Amino acid sequence: MIKNILFLSTALFVCLSIKTVVKKLEESKYIRVNADGSLKYLPDAKGNTIPDFSHVGYHQGDKAIPAVTVVKTVSANESGDSGQLLQNAIDEVSQMPLKDGFRGAILLKKGTYKIAGTLHINKSGIVLRGEGENATKLIATGKGQRSLVVFGGDGALSAIKGTRVQVADQFVPVGTFSLTLTDASKFKVGDNIVVYRPGTDQWIKDLKMDQIEARDGTKQWQAKEYNLEFERRIIKIEGHKITLDNPIVMEMEQKYGGAEVYKASFEGRINEVGIENIYLESEYANDTDEDHGWVGVEYSKVQDGWAKNITTKYFGYAAVSIKATSKQITVKDSKCLDAKSVITGGRRYSFNNDGQLNLFMNLESTDARHDYVTGSKTLGPNVFTQCKAIRTHADIGPHHRWAAGTLYDNIQTDGEINVQDRGNWGSGHGWAGVTQVLWNCKVKRAAVQSPWANGQNYSFGTQGDKYDGRFKGRPDGVWENQNQTGIKPASLYLAQLQDRQKRN
C-alpha cells in the first residue's frame, strides 16, 4: 500500500513538473490558418505583414518545369577530354530555332565526361540532361578556379527614359502588393518595372552603419551604394494605384527618400534554360586545395531557369550560384557534398543566391560554411525551403549588407541560422538583412535580431537555442513559439503557394 502511494505521488509530481515546463503553443500575432486552409495576415502597428513568398522560382511557380524534347544526344569520350565535344553540341543546338520557347534538350548518355574548362550556354531554350547522378558524370579536371557549367546572357537592367514616377504613399508597408503613384498614366498592365528605393545618409545614420567599429579594410556604408532596384511587373491599374506581381519586402518611407517606379528592360537575359539528372565533380589535390573547380552551375543574366536532380562534389565554393542579374530560378532536389578548400571566408557557399525571386527547395549540403545564403543587397522575395545542412562550419542566413525579404522555411542544420548585425566582419558586413523570416527551422542555435530602424526580422517555431549573436544589445527580432512543435502551417511557403493557387 505504501509503495503504491509513493508511486502515485511520484507520478503526480512528474506530471505536474511536465505541466510547468511545457509551454502552450501560442496563436501567432502575424499569420493564421483559416478553417478552409486559407491564410490570414495580421498587420503590425505600422501596417506591415509577413510577405507572400509564393511568387518565386521558375515562372513564379505558375508553371511546372517542363520535360523538354531531346534534340541532340551525346556519348562521352571515355579516353580523353569531352569539353569540346559537349560545347560543340551546345553550339549546334544554339543555332536551332526556338519552338514554344525552347530549342531542345541535349541528352548526355551514361558515362564520364572529363572537362578541363567551362561549358557555356549563352542562348535561350537549352537544357542539359543526364541519365541520372549515378550514370552521367561531369568531372572538372585539372587546375583552375572556375564554374563548370555557366548559363549566361548579356546586357544589363536598364531604365526606360522618361518613365520615372514618384510613389505618392508616405509609407509603404511590407507585404503590400500595391503602390499609389503621383501619375500612373505612363504605365499599362504587363509592364516590367523597377520599384526604386534610394539609399540616403539619414537611413545609414539611423542604422548606425556609418559607425562600424573600424579595423583594416573596414568600409562604412555609403548612401550611393544602397540604391535598391526591386524588379516587378504590373498586373492591375486602378486610377493612379498599381498592383504588382510580387509584394514589397521592406518598408519604404518618405523620411528615407520614399520610392520611385520606372519601366525597365533587360534585353540580353536568356531564359528557359536548365540542367537536370547529372552528377558534377571536381578533381582536387588535397583537402585544402584551392586551385580546382569552384562552382558547379552558375546563372548569370538568366530569367526562368532551373537546376534539378543534380549532385555536386568537391567544389570549393558552390553547387549552384545565382548572380544578382538572374531571377525566377528554381533549384530543387539537389546536393552539394564534401567541399574541398581552406575553411575560411569566401569559400563553401553551397547554394548561393544574389538574385531576385528565386526558389531553393529540397536540398542537402555537407561540410560547408554558409550552406543556404544570400549576399549583399539581395532583393526578394527569395525562398529556401525543405533544406538540410550537415557538418556545417559557419552559419546559414543573410550574409551581409542588407538582403531584403528571404524566407528560411523548414531548414534543418547542426549549426546556426543567424540574422544579425555582423559589424566589421569582412569589410563591414553590418546589418545582414531585413524581413528575414525563419519558419519551423531546426538549429543548434540562432540569433534573430532586427535592425535599429526600417524593419523587422522574424523567428516562428524555431527549435534550438536562442543566443545573442555577435553583439549583445542589438534589438531583438520577433520570436514566436520557440522550441514548440505543431505550428501551422507546417510549411509557410507551401501554404502560401496552395492558398494563391486556390484563389486563382
Key traits:
504 residues; mainly beta; 14-stranded parallel sheet; 10-stranded parallel sheet; 4 helices; 10% helix; Pectin_lyase_fold/virulence; Pectate lyase
Count the DSSP helices. 4
Dominant shape: globular
Category by helix and strand content: mainly beta
Distance between the termini: 67 Å
Overall strand count: 35
Relative helix content: 10-25%
Q: Largest sheet at a glance?
A: 14 strands, parallel
What Rg is obtained from the alpha carbons, in whole angstroms? Answer: 24 Å
Give start-end ranges of low-pLDDT stretches: 1-21
Range of strand content: 35-45%
Average predicted confidence as pLDDT: 95
Organism: Pedobacter albus
Protein name: Pectate lyase
Please characterize this protein's 3D structure:
- This protein is mainly beta.
- It has a domain at 157-265 and 358-504.
- It is 10% helix and 38% strand.
- It has four helices and 35 strands.
- It has helices at 2-21, 83-94, 201-207, 492-503; strands at residues 31-33, 39-41, 70-74, 104-108, 111-115, 119-121, 126-129, 136-140, 147-152, 158-159, 165-166, 171-172, 178-180, 192-197, 228-238, 241-244, 252-253, 260-265, 270-282, 295-300, 302-313, 318-322, 327-337, 351-353, 359-366, 372-374, 379-390, 395-398, 403-413, 416-419, 433-439, 442-448, 458-460, 463-466, 478-480.
- The strands form five sheets. Strands 3, 4, 5, 7, 8, 19, 21, 23, 25, 27, 29, 31, 33 and 35 form a 14-stranded parallel beta sheet that branches.
- Strand 3 (70-74), helix 2 and strand 4 form a beta-alpha-beta unit.
- The termini are far apart.
